[in-house]
Write a structure and sequence with these properties.
single chain; two-stranded parallel sheet; Rossmann fold; binds uridine-5'-diphosphate; binds nicotinamide-adenine-dinucleotide
Length: 342
Amino acid sequence: MRSERRFGHKFLSGLSSSARKTILVAGGAGFLGSHLCERLLKQGSDVVCLDNLLTGSLDNIAHLSQTGRFTFRQHDVIEPLRIDGPVDEIYNLACPASPPKYQKDPFHTFQTSIMGAMNLLELAKAKGARILQASTSEVYGDPEISPQPESYRGCVNTVGPRACYDEGKRAAETLFYEYGRQFGLNTKIARIFNTYGPRMSPDDGRVVSNFIVQALTGRDLTVYGKGEQTRSFCYVDDLVEGLMRLMASPDDLRDPVNLGNPGEFTVRELAEIVLARTGSRSRLVNLDLPVDDPRQRRPDIARAKRELSWSPVVPLEEGLDHTIAYFDAVLRNSARKEAMVS
Ligand code: NAD
Ligand code: UDP
């Protein structure tokens, strides 16, 4: 397995020798969740995937059933849940992550973060399970400092279109903290920075998938504002590795941990790299900058390096090439299907 070769480390060897676990992944049919389920199955665990299929897809997880150790349950995490049998670990990834998707129904997004976290924390309490929250760099809002360490308390607008997501995720961190403090639950908080890779949905709306699909279909690349805002892009394999290391970390590591790639690019630079990697002759077009769009974002990953011996290893160009190949195949497949129908 490629990432095991790249990350020869104590947590991974600990994982492979541990007893067979039952691991629940909420949001497991989504982009990140489906990669996580795959890695957990490869590690030898039984995986239960909960998802309401709001932004996820059965196509992302269809191949996992072959293992005989994968169960899918369609469920909205805002509803209480009951799971029979033991559960050793819970990953809470259930929440739309793309701004246009999470802003479509802000009340449901808010409920997903808060009631979803409560329901999963209650389940962890009942089962004595470890639980990890997929939090986000959005808890830093539009940051005034760069890079952002975990100690930075953020600059979030509570009454803007991003607030349903940012404030929901901030509140979820508080719930994780209190369940740890009040009930001794083994909680973990990953603050995930922009992550990309295969299995993002072509209509997801985030910048990497938008630019690649636009470049491959010969459409203009939609650069919001002047494209001077920055992001740091982490390849999915690196991120999943970080999540698993955090879950396996010592019990007393309850503070939030940034997971992301510190390489920082303007959105315009990203567009130009995508054009170069795809060989596309698409042009760049400037559209309005969305309200409250963060001007800069770059993780300080000193804590992840120190506590998890983790840092990303996939360079942007390499990760983009894997992602471009994925979207190329998806687009060719849907063109073939359309041709057969007409
Ligand atoms: P995604 O939209 O592909 O996946 C989210 C999954 O959660 C989907 O399968 C969706 O159907 C499911 N879901 C949404 N609401 C639900 C609900 N109420 N009940 C059950 N399932 C629900 O997004 P992703 O990029 O895979 O993100 C996964 C998690 O990681 C999210 O919690 C997101 O906030 C967090 N995160 C991701 C990034 C990133 O760059 N990818 C960055 C920061 C945080
Ligand atoms: N963006 C863009 N064109 C797009 C989609 C996004 O220029 O088609 C910009 C967006 O304004 C933001 C950055 O790219 O500055 C990252 O956007 P994304 O939605 O991927 O994630 P965010 O970090 O904003 O949650």
